[in-house]
């Protein structure tokens, strides 16, 4: 059953990138992240109330609280970097870099969680890494200064995303998955709004385009759904396999980016996408 949950997580994660890109054309990415986190938080705590796991909050150990909070901080950092990268870069390329976090996650899972790193997994890592390099096209010389920073933000997003998974896996041991997600989201909300006030972007709330605000709201719903399914799958399944399935969301993102944003892939990028999907499927099967 956890494989089904991981599949749903991938679907909603892919949709999230598209909705978020549509919602930050003019809206500051940090402010958009803070606003959409409110939606995710409401959805997460709503699920906690539905399943009745709020009664177990006081029974959580100090260690569990620590890892959940650290996971939330890593998630917040990943989100802030990811949506900044989305705002200034092409959604196809940003999503590819972000999803390459699976390589770091596999290494971290081997080092910190003791999960076996088999020959198949090593081959999968190689395929995904090669595919990522093929998909991330070099910018024309005149655009390097203007557009090169998206790569830094996307890379940081991938790093923090991999840390999120490892910390989240440890933190949800013995914790109802919806409750763990809600606690982490609360940390992300605090962190994202803190960044908004530090950068004085709260004054722009009233001037947000209603259309973009709608997309931000919808991306929050998609993110919330993806998270709930992801951490439900992570609680029962092997970390490396759950992460691999979730990273198939890149195919969903590329598909919608082609029709909505007219972002086309050349032959080299298509080959790269094929290698990423092949490597991911190797991880699953």
TrEMBL record:
Subcellular localization: Endomembrane system
Membrane topology note: Multi-pass membrane protein
Positions of the EamA domain: 2-136, 149-284
InterPro entries per the UniProt record, alphabetical: EamA_dom, EmrE-like
Organism domain of life: Bacteria
Keyword Transmembrane recorded: yes
Gene3D superfamilies, per the entry: 1.10.3730.20
Native species: Enterococcus larvae
Record-annotated membrane-spanning stretches: 6-24, 31-50, 62-82, 94-113, 148-167, 179-200, 212-230, 242-261
Keywords: Membrane, Transmembrane, Transmembrane helix
Family: Belongs to the EamA transporter family.
Protein name in the entry: EamA family transporter
Matching Pfam families: EamA (PF00892)
Main location: membrane
């Amino acid at each position: 059953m956890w494989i089904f949950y991981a599949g749903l997580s991938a679907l909603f994660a892919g949709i999230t990138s598209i909705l978020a890109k549509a919602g930050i054309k003019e809206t500051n990415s940090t402010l958009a992240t803070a606003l959409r986190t409110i939606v995710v938080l409401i959805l997460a705590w709503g699920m906690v109330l539905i399943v009745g796991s709020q009664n177990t909050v006081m029974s959580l150990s100090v260690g569990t609280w620590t890892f959940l909070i650290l996971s939330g901080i890593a998630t917040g950092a990943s989100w802030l970097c990811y949506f900044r990268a989305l705002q200034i870069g092409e959604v196809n390329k940003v999503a590819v870099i972000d999803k390459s976090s699976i390589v770091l996650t596999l290494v971290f899972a081997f080092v910190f969680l003791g999960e076996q790193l088999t020959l198949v997994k090593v081959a999968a890592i190689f395929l995904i890494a090669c595919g990522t390099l093929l998909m991330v096209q070099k910018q024309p010389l005149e655009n390097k200064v203007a557009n090169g920073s998206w790569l830094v933000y996307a890379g940081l997003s991938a790093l923090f995303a991999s840390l999120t998974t490892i910390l989240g896996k440890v933190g949800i041991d013995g914790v109802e998955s919806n409750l763990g997600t809600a606690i982490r989201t609360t940390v992300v909300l605090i962190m994202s709004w803190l960044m908004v006030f530090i950068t004085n972007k709260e004054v722009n709330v009233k001037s947000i385009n209603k259309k973009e605000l709608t997309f931000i709201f919808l991306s929050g719903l998609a993110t919330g759904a993806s998270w709930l399914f992801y951490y439900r799958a992570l609680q029962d399944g092997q970390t490396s396999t759950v992460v691999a399935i979730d990273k198939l969301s890149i195919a969903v993102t590329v598909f919608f980016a082609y029709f909505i944003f007219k972002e086309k892939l050349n032959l080299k990028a298509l080959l790269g996408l094929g290698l990423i999907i092949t490597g991911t499927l190797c991880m699953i099967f």
